[in-house]
Design brief:
- By secondary structure, this protein is α+β, with helices and mostly antiparallel strands.
- It is built from nine helices and ten strands.
- It has two domains: about 5-15 and about 35-155, Ribosomal Protein S5, domain 2 (2-Layer Sandwich), CATH 3.30.230; about 165-275, GHMP kinase, C-terminal domain (Alpha-Beta Plaits, 2-Layer Sandwich), CATH 3.30.70.
- The protein is about 30% helix and about 30% strand.
- β1 (about 5-25) and β2 form a beta hairpin.
- α1 packs across α3 (about 125-135).
Length: about 290
């Protein structure tokens, strides 16, 4: 038994801001952020089999299977639902790994949602989200499949609707270490904003991880300078997550593409439009 493969999309995200509020006893940090989904995706295909084996057929060849969040997500769902089904998985990877764009987390979320549907395991959104949190703090926002205001470690989510502006995203082709960022002396802390209505994107755009990231990866600062020299950007260029990607926001695709043309070719750069819902939303919310 096998099913015909279907393409499932896993979108990238950026953090429109990132405030670190406090360190928790479990070693994680409480934060407040705004996750913005983008129409820039990895593509995953799943073929259901009845052998109970989870097999990666193509893509992510540079990642050991036991470290691949896609495989780990499939195995976690299989274990928790006791399904006897398996699957063949292939991925076309576009979102750069370790760039602060949530690619691995998004792939894991899409895997959980897709296989929950294809295997007919029927876990609720709440249970899927709990499984996703075991894989990483950014996974829940992708499972919930909507741009969102986030608190806690990133798992307390309130969906938001943001303007469908365009972004120029620049990855400086260097990975930052999240653990080193959070233990860096240059990491700053921000007092908690009481609620989402107290937040203004254009006045609270700072990222508490930025200075630590620049001290770890100097190219981040250089890329921000390049973006801030572009014409017609909204506000200032910012960094996503703990880096190393940075971005600038524009009201039109034309302005974003004009800025793209000026970016140094040594960096990976792309334009994308803001989206408020993920392509997997209808599957993610089916079991609410």
């Amino acid at each position: 038994m096998s099913s015909s493969p279907k393409v499932w999309l896993a979108p990238a995200k950026i953090n429109l801001f990132l405030h670190i509020n406090s360190k928790r006893k479990d070693g994680y940090h409480n934060l407040q952020t705004l996750f913005q989904l983008l129409d820039y995706h990895d593509e995953l295909q799943f073929t259901v089999t009845d052998q109970g084996i989870i097999n990666r057929t193509s893509g992510n060849e540079n990642i050991a299977p036991e470290c691949d969040l896609i495989i780990r997500a499939a195995e976690l769902l299989q274990k928790n639902t006791k399904t006897h089904l398996g699957c063949d998985i292939s991925i076309v990877k576009r979102i750069p790994a370790g760039a602060g764009l949530g690619g691995g987390s998004s792939d894991a979320a899409t895997t959980l949602v897709a296989l929950n549907h294809l295997w007919k395991t029927d876990l609720s959104l709440q249970k899927l989200t709990a499984l996703g949190l075991e894989l990483g703090a950014d996974v829940p926002v992708f499972i919930n499949a909507q741009s969102a205001w986030a608190e806690g470690v990133g798992e307390i989510l309130s969906p938001v609707n943001t303007p469908n502006n365009y972004f120029l995203v620049v990855f400086v082709n260097q990975h930052t270490s999240t653990s080193e960022i959070f233990s860096h002396k240059a990491l700053t802390m921000s007092p908690m904003i009481g609620k989402i209505s107290d937040f203004s994107e254009l006045t609270n755009t700072h990222n508490d991880c930025l200075q630590a990231a620049i001290e770890q990866t100097e190219e981040i600062g250089l890329a921000l300078e390049e973006l801030n020299n572009c014409s017609n950007l909204i506000g200032k260029a910012r960094m996503s997550g703990t880096g190393s990607s940075v971005f600038a926001e524009f009201s039109t695709k034309k302005n974003a593409l004009a800025a793209l043309e000026k970016m140094p070719k040594k960096w990976m750069s792309f334009t994308a439009q803001a989206i408020n819902t993920s392509p997997i939303l209808k599957w993610a919310v089916a079991k609410r």
